[in-house]
Amino acid sequence: MIIYKEQRASDHKAWSGAVETLERIKYLGLEDSFNNLIEELYPDGIDETQLNDILWFEEDWIFEMLG
Fold first, then answer.
1. Taking Cα atoms as reference points, which of 64, 60, 65, 15 lies closest to residue 40?
2. Per-residue pLDDT tens for 38-63?
3. Minimal CA–CA distance to 31: which of 56, 12, 57?
4. Please, what's the b/e burial string for 24-61 (b: 16 or more CB within 10 A of its CB; e: otherwise)?
5. Which among 7, 41, 51, 58 has most CB atoms closer than 10 A?
6. What is the pTM of this model?
7. What is the DSSP letter of 11?
8. Contact at 8 Å (CB) between 10 and 25?
């Protein structure tokens, strides 16, 4: 069984190395920009593991894209 839930990317319950990146996004007030970026790149949605991996392993790219 697959369960889908709709949530904003910034509301993701991050784990491991992704926690720090998501906390930094929130601290800098970039939640809306991050949500827009993820929605633009993944218009059909993204699963939690993919999102967590992006936050964990692509921190430099995220902040480059967010300016």
1. 65
2. 999 998 888 999 999 999 999 999 99
3. 12
4. ebeeeebeebbbebbeeeeeeebeeeebbebbbeebee
5. 51
6. 0.88
7. G
8. yes
